[in-house]
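Renewal narrative, Specific Aim 1. Our central claim is that a sequence can be written position by position from structural information alone. The example that follows is taken directly from our test logs and has not been curated for this report. It begins with the structure tokens describing the chain, in the order in which they were read.
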């Protein structure tokens, strides 16, 4: 794999010319014409699609309108509730509500079916599409029924990726979908475009997850594709089946790129034909000379079976390398666990080594990444006639949709799997977010799914129970299962892959999926369960802020799962205050109590009462502030909107992972006014902060001017936002003095600035 940091040109879709002093002459000799870098940049597939969907008139400052929207049941209640509070009358474009994240558990929170009935009645009332539980995971339904060549889809799940089908798709937090539902736009600067030039053909036994993990391992840590569009081109694309391309494409999210798009060909056309949507195909190719801001060359034939060890998809090794350095790599993972879990629990992976081989407790093939037709067929071929054994090792397979399941039944793959001892289940995202097949304490699970963050498998770290997940391709998982749990690469076994043809039958969708065809029925009454609650009222940004640091996280990367856990907490997904009780619960169990304590001061201000009476320790803080700002105390007590009191957190690089806006909204409803970070892992997390009225502060790397539980004073913050200041004066209130330091905010759009000033997106649209 070769990374071109300086960018590169692609001529006629097949010749790579590195961007250097000789590039122009080389291109002119091949094409007979001179092409500027600026003009060539307009010839990427990505540029063309973005231009077609941009409403701003400027290709530097984009205002995108999407063609379709998708959400699942962890997010759609909050999205629709936000949109309703902001004036929603009708879904203006097709909006699909799937129910693939049903937690199968109602302990302590919303009964799943209450959320589902809320979704169904909203689909009827506002003119949407409703996919019942177990019919399809969100992204497979989108591939089968929604994707179109040259179109754009916005989803509230981070793995919204349909680039292999010619659809540019993005996963964002719920508020961005709210904007689309209210006929507003998705506002971003023109993103960079990274060319992914594929050559060669994968080795037999190497699957799409192997290709994806190899890419993620190369580009995550260095931010090579961060917030850019990955554009897959080159002759190697046509050496991959469409199912294979989809398997690579869905994992691009784990690179932290913004979106993805692939060139399309006759195989993609056949995909649309199989799904009865021939007219939705569009051939997409870069222009004669296309310029990419950065470039990756990848020979598919060089990729070997891969494994991403705990606790991140970028912690990658070849299986061959892992087996050759087993104890050293396992020791490194155990040390990572100590960091991830703050030394509270011990992970013992080295005990999994038996007679020099790594023994695995569990295998999972599931969801939008692993549950595809070809993945499961190849796994069934590997396992045919074998046994997974009668020991600890278990294998579960989750086809990504009922149509896939039906075809696997018809062609015999399900029977082949079942007779080995494997369990074949329905379409469900549970293993991907910690709500299905939770391993035993200290168990090690290998999964063809999207993520292996801490707790993604459903561990109860707060109770001392911890397990871990490694990501692998379905084929190597099946090979491991055939060896009764001993880690095995698919390339190490001899098998003839049958490669049965796929036949799509949408009868089950015709019979079960509610499709309004875009017709709203305003007379429908929305069905609310007792635990479906409205968003609490949120105040506008005050003139000055007093913030207490209530959590300090120094991990290299903080995932959204650590900010708000997935899994069983999703039963509170429709109750903002109930869900907020779980914020940082697996990372910093003291966070919620600390945030709620300082929030008492803000509630006192909102009620016209004295904040010091609510939080007595504020007296010393206010006295210190008065040494420089003598009028602060009196005005804070008497002038509403003059001073705000609340919490903030510091994290080195927060926001990797899920698009769930709950990672931000839970902080907001607990009185959070800001995050302070060295950088934000993803655009979507920063956008979620902004849309919930929180300040996305940046502070330079190095020693912090404050500590956990310190108070910070940020004077004239409202004016700073209004005046578009990038440098923000702040003070740490320490030892009876104000100690100055600087905060930074990257550029905000005018709308983003107004959202922060109003206090949140809901307030912004209410006026």
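The sequence written for that structure reads:
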């Amino acid at each position: 794999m070769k990374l071109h940091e300086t960018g590169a040109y692609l001529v006629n879709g097949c010749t790579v010319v590195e961007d250097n002093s000789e590039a122009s002459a080389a291109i002119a000799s091949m094409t007979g014409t001179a092409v500027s870098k600026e003009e060539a940049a307009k010839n990427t597939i990505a540029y063309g699609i973005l231009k077609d969907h941009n409403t701003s008139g400027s290709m530097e400052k984009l205002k995108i309108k999407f063609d379709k929207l998708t959400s699942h049941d962890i997010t759609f209640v909050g999205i629709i509730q936000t949109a309703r509070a902001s004036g929603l009358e009708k879904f203006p474009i097709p909006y699909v509500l799937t129910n693939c994240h049903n937690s199968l558990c109602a302990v302590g929170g919303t009964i799943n079916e209450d959320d589902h009935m809320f979704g169904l009645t909203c689909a009827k009332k506002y003119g949407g599409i409703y996919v019942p539980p177990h019919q399809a995971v969100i992204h497979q339904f989108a591939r089968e029924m929604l994707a179109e060549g040259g179109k754009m889809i916005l989803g509230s799940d981070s793995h919204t990726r349909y680039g292999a089908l010619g659809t540019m798709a993005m996963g964002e937090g719920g508020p961005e979908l709210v904007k689309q539902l209210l006929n507003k736009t998705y506002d971003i600067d023109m993103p960079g475009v990274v060319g992914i030039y594929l050559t060669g053909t994968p080795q037999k036994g190497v699957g799409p997850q192997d290709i994806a993990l190899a890419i993620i391992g190369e580009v995550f840590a260095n931010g090579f594709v961060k917030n850019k569009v990955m554009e897959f081109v080159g002759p190697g694309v046509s050496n991959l089946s469409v199912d294979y391309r989809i398997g690579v494409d869905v994992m691009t999210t784990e690179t932290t790129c913004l979106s993805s798009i692939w060139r399309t060909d006759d195989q993609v056309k056949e995909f649309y034909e199989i799904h009865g949507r021939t007219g939705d195909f569009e051939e997409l190719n870069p222009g004669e000379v296309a310029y990419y801001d950065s470039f990756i060359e990848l020979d598919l034939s060089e990729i070997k079976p891969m494994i991403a060890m705990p606790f991140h998809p970028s912690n990658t090794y070849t299986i061959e390398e892992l087996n050759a350095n087993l104890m050293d790599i396992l020791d490194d993972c155990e040390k990572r666990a100590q960091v991830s879990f703050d030394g509270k629990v011990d992970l013992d992976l080295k005990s999994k080594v038996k007679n020099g081989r790594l023994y695995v407790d569990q295998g999972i093939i599931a969801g939008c990444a692993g549950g595809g037709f070809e993945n499961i067929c190849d796994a069934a071929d590997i396992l045919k006639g074998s046994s997974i054994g009668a020991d600890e090792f278990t294998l579960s397979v989750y086809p990504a949709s009922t149509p896939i399941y039906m075809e696997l039944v018809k062609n015999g793959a399900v029977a082949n799997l079942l007779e080995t001892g494997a369990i074949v289940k329905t379409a469900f995202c549970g293993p991907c977010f910690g709500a299905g097949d939770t391993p035993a304490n200290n168990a090690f699970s290998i999964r063809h799914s999207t993520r292996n963050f801490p707790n993604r498998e459903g561990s109860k770290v707060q109770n001392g129970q911890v397990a871990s997940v490694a990501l692998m391709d379905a084929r190597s998982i099946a090979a491991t299962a055939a060896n009764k749990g001993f880690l095995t690469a698919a390339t190490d076994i001899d098998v003839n892959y049958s490669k049965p043809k796929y036949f799509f039958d949408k009868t089950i969708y015709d019979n079960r999926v509610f499709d309004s065809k875009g017709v709203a029925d305003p007379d429908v009454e929305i069905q609310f369960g007792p635990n479906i609650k409205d968003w609490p009222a949120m105040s506008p940004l005050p003139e000055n802020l007093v913030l207490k640091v209530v959590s300090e996280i120094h991990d290299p990367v903080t995932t959204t799962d650590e900010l708000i856990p997935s899994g069983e907490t999703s039963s509170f997904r429709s109750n903002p205050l109930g869900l907020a009780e779980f914020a940082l619960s697996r990372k910093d169990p003291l966070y919620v109590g600390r945030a709620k304590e300082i929030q008492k001061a803000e509630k006192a201000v909102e009620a016209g009462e004295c904040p010091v009476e609510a939080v007595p320790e504020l007296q010393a803080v206010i006295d210190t502030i008065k040494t420089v700002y003598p009028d602060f105390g009196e005005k804070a007590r008497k002038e509403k909107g003059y001073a705000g009191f609340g919490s903030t957190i510091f994290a080195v690089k927060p926001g990797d992972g899920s698009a769930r806006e709950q990672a931000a909204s839970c902080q907001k409803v607990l009185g959070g006014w800001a995050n302070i970070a060295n950088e934000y892992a993803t655009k979507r997390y920063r956008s979620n902060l902004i849309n919930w009225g929180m300040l996305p502060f940046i502070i330079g790397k190095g020693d912090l001017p404050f500590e956990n539980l310190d108070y910070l004073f940020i004077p004239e913050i409202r004016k700073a936002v209004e005046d578009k200041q990038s440098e923000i004066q702040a003070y740490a209130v320490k030892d009876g003095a104000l100690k100055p330091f600087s905060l930074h905010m990257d550029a905000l759009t005018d709308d983003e600035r107004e959202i922060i000033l109003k206090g949140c997106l809901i307030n912004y649209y209410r006026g």
